[in-house]
Amino acid sequence: MIKLSILDQSIATAGRAQGLAIRNTIALAEATEAMGYARFWVSEHHNNATIVGTAPEILISAIAARTKRIRVGSAGVMLPHYAPYKVAEQFRVLEAIAPGRIDLGLGRAPGSDGRTAFALNPQANERPAQFPNDIADLQAWLTDTPLRDGHPFAAVHAYPAGETSPEIWILGSSDYGAQVAAHYGLPYAFAWFFTDGVGAAHAMRLYHDNYRPSQRFPTPRAALCVWALAAETEAEALHHFTSRARFRLLRDRGVFGPLEAPEVAAAYDYSEAENARMAEFRRAALIGTGPDVARRITELAASVGATEMAIVTWTFDEAARITSYRLIAEAFGLSPG
Q1: Going by DSSP bridges, is the β-strand pair 222-230/39-42 parallel, antiparallel, or unpaired?
Q2: Contact at 8 Å (CB) between 89 and 157?
């Protein structure tokens, strides 16, 4: 059976305070834990007026304190912005808050533009090349195992110590992340929703074909992160999707702003080309009734060898978003563990 999880990005909505998006994320985690989802991941973006989840480590702490069973983690921490040792300390603290429930998803993309990446870390241009070595160091600090011979920080430990350690995932939307995950014997998640699936099949093949078993993960564990929306009827799902379709049009022009109500998004005077593009978005999206979305998720997972699916859903109406996750959970027969 496919394991179902959630990736939430804390989306700002027009006419509402941005802080509400953060509070909605926390409330959604509580609601979806009761539905039986396995994981709840939060993303990291910067200088983005649409996606206002900027500090996953803080949000994870709040969610972990409000939940009891669901795994909570990042999708992800953009490692080139930070010193691996500091990330290790943060996630050791999170592991102390929720032992055995913390995931550390790691990415090397900036989650922002180049100027913002430089504002976060003046050495940002140099850090991506260090990504594989940073992962090795981070693993050692998280599990309190020795760093490589001759390491300048061999005597440094990350506290608090504990009997459990966070589960590391490598995130990506290209071949690179798949190869890094395979090399270290770590779980891998491909951002299908980011590329509309382009490159996913090849990356997943690379991951499985080159996987080197590790002590914690003797076999590959592959996931897809997909955008999906379910409603009681297909027409209702399409209605709510209009907000997302308009966002996609604006994003392609480099314009970012809060998500608009579907009625507002539908009322614009679109050109023939824009209407065609939005129709294309609708055809490619995983939207419909709960059983329809569940069927397509199952088929997609089978086609690329994924055993887990992390679902991203944006709606202007928060109740519609919670309903979407409920309908998908019901279609898969999920129940709280």
Answers
A1: unpaired
A2: no
Report pLDDT digits (tens) over 148-194: 999 999 999 999 999 999 999 999 999 999 999 999 999 999 999 99
| E strands, the chain, in order | 3-8, 39-42, 71-78, 102-107, 167-172, 188-190, 222-230, 286-288, 308-312
**Residue whose token pair is 């304190």:** 65
Is 178 within 8 Å of 206 (Cβ atoms)? yes
DSSP state of 160: S
Within 13 Å, how many C-alpha atoms sit on residue 264's CB side? 13
Contacts of 181 (CB under 8 A, 6+ apart): 169, 170, 172, 187, 188, 207
The tokens describing 142, both together, are 């998280």
Structural domains of the chain in order of their starting residue, each with its CATH number: 3-230+287-332 (3.20.20.30)
Distance CA 206, CA 242 (A): 35
Bridge partners for 74 per DSSP:
42, 104
User: Binning pLDDT at 50, 70 and 90, where does residue 118 land?
Assistant: confident
pTM, two decimals, is 0.96
Rounded Cα gap, residues 166 and 168, in angstroms: 6
Q: What is the DSSP letter of 100?
A: T
Phi, psi of 63 (to 5 degrees): -70, -45
Assigned token pair, 258? 């809060």
C-alpha torsion 116→198→323→39, nearest 10: -70
Amino acid at 263: E
